[in-house]
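Deviation from plan, reported transparently: flavin-adenine dinucleotide complex.
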Amino acid sequence: MNFDLTQEQQMVKKLMRDFSNEEVAPGAVDRDRTGKFPLDIFKTLSQMGMMGLPFPEKYGGAGADTISFAIVTEELSRACASTGITYSAHISLGGAPLHLFGTEQQKQDFLIPICTGESLGAFGLTEPNAGSDAGGTETAAVLEEGKYIINGSKVYITNASYAKHLALTAVTGRKDGRKEISAIIVPTDTEGFTIIDNYEKMGLHASNTTELILDQVTVPEENLLGERGRGFQQFLVTLDGGRIGIGAMAVGIAQAAYERALNYSKERKQFGKSLSSFQITQFKLADMAMKIELARNMVYKAAWMKDQGRKFTKEASMCKLYASEIAMQIASEAIQIHGGYGYMREYEVERYLRDAKLLEIGEGTSEVQRMVIAGQIGC
Ligand SMILES: Cc1cc2nc3c(=O)[nH]c(=O)nc-3n(C[C@H](O)[C@H](O)[C@H](O)COP(=O)(O)OP(=O)(O)OC[C@H]3O[C@@H](n4cnc5c(N)ncnc54)[C@H](O)[C@@H]3O)c2cc1C
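Because the crystal trials were delayed, the predicted structure below was used instead.
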């Protein structure tokens, strides 16, 4: 067993740590206030070859591994979680299903623009009446004369305003009395396709979260992604990978909150001593450091298993669940260590708490993760 990052992974870590400190962190507070999408950062990430990081070079990717993807997501999220979720969704929800299930032609047409950064990646699964129970999908696609005509709506879809196309799930028929769900690639400029970007969120203010309305949206039959009727299984596989991204985001936010708390505890004096000299503060910081170490190891292990081609459903769920829950605990404790200052926007730690909360909800809530893990351990 070897816990060292490879030379390549270390290079990615250093590159992304420097980039995030210099280019991403400085605007994070402002973006949180204004909700301005970090388009310039993504232009630079494209130039750095990060937008197709884990995808094959022949599609414009960098052919890197999932651990590297986790490192990039963690480092971006440490500086700005809105940037982190945009990147994570782009790769793991936008690019991954095309890479895993797309035909050669679909990869040429749709994966390449994602790898080059020409389009951001997005994935439309959730609907007003189908969240945790994604099998409750109501969006319907009817095949007529070689074309799918799609009607319905999706909610909370990340990145869609900046995507040239996205895969979404729709009911394409019924089999044995059950809905047959398929995934279909839809160019976002298709007639009848409307993207609404006006949610007022608790956190992740600079990330793009949208509602999609599909009114007689017509796409060629060749836009079916993977096998007809396999959309449900495909999104389960897609979400396994996505959960590594959410776990990595959580580690990044937790790391940022911990670093702030550690630094503040050394500077702030009460009773004539720094907070860091009180044992109770030391123990809080020790617990934070330990939880982050464990969460990061869990994320890396799930990523490593994915790279080995092994089944990693359980590990992905565990890392997502644990990392998102400790990110909330650590963000809250970081505010506590800052006292009243922590409650003020100026000190930034409250942003970590608001941003971290999504990680217990998106890509399967904590309850759903426990259901997945229970299933995997044979309950
Ligand atoms: C900022 C943001 C970005 C998102 N990005 C995307 C995206 O890009 N693409 C996409 O498709 N979706 C996206 N989502 C949707 C997200 O994945 C869903 O919100 C999530 O899966 C939960 O679904 P829901 O909101 O309908 O909650 P519900 O499913 O209604 O759940 C409500 C509560 O009930 C609990 N619950 C539900 N069923 C059970 C059960 N059987 N047993 C016990 N408890 C249960 C849940 O755990 C939760 O606590 C995003 C959401 C947000 C907020």
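The first helix runs from residue 7 to 24. We consider this an acceptable substitute for the interim report.
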